[in-house]
Amino acid sequence: MAVFSLAIFSISKSDSVELPPALASNAQPVAFREQLRRRVPSSVYVASAELGAIGLVGTLFNTQGLSQVPGLTGAVLLAAVNIFTPLTSALFGANAKEREVGASTWLSCVVALAASTFALLPEGAGFELPAIGVGESEVLAAAFFFSAAKVRLSSHLKLHDADTCTVGRLVGQAGLAAAGLGLLDETNAVHELLPSERGGLGMSLVQVVDQGLDWTANLSGEQIFWIVASAMLSGACALFCQSKGQSVVPAPRAQVFFSTSPLFGALWALLLLREPITAHELQGGAVLLLGIR
């Protein structure tokens, strides 16, 4: 679905019109052909499904790729999002203004790519381009879809407010993930409830609920805290802040700010894990901060 939605909005030949400033709650129904011309659906449900699908596909590629390549290689490859974001903006932007990426923005993104890659390298390690295998290709695909999600979010924010986009994206991605688990994963409640003649375990609803309660009861207080904190801080809160920021900052420019992730990662590692910040992280972070102007 993510590939389909991106293709739909990229093949439109006519230039899209400026989107109205109306919020989703006040938006009037628009013919589907007109929505294609605008490249932004007026239905918040369609918008949520698209953002959720793109985010989910990116997460799946990232998870699958990182399971096959070293963590450092994956992190360096994910830095390619600094180049993919202005590229996908030029391809999938909802109007001419979004598709126009200035030379200064391109330069900032290239500098961000070099600085973030340098910051990720350990001390004394030289840089060597990784051989591109299946795992590496999947991480690069994840970087592409992550950048596409930023661009499409900027487009949807022209019509829907930040709160709506955040909630819709979370619900859409969670719903699609749950549907996928129900169809593909054999360790979920849907599989357990299905009768044995249909490939399930034939368990009763009470047994499935009891299993879930037993799993929850075995969690420690610290585990529950970190599960909730990671879901709220790196999930809902991060997406909300992203939506708020991208409502006024175009996606390519926003990517320059996103490229500071290695710097904040080093800071959190220092605060929570007592890991020292390396010279590479300091130098790369300084270049990243200089690039944000």
UniProtKB/TrEMBL annotation:
It comes from the Eukaryota. SUPFAM superfamilies: Multidrug resistance efflux transporter EmrE. InterPro entries: Diverse_Substrate_Transporter, EamA_dom, EmrE-like. Residues 219-292 form the EamA domain. This is EamA domain-containing protein. Pfam families: EamA. The keyword Cell membrane applies. It is found in: Cell membrane. The chain crosses the membrane at residues 43-61, 73-94, 101-121. Keywords: Cell membrane, Membrane, Transmembrane, Transmembrane helix. It is a multi-pass membrane protein.
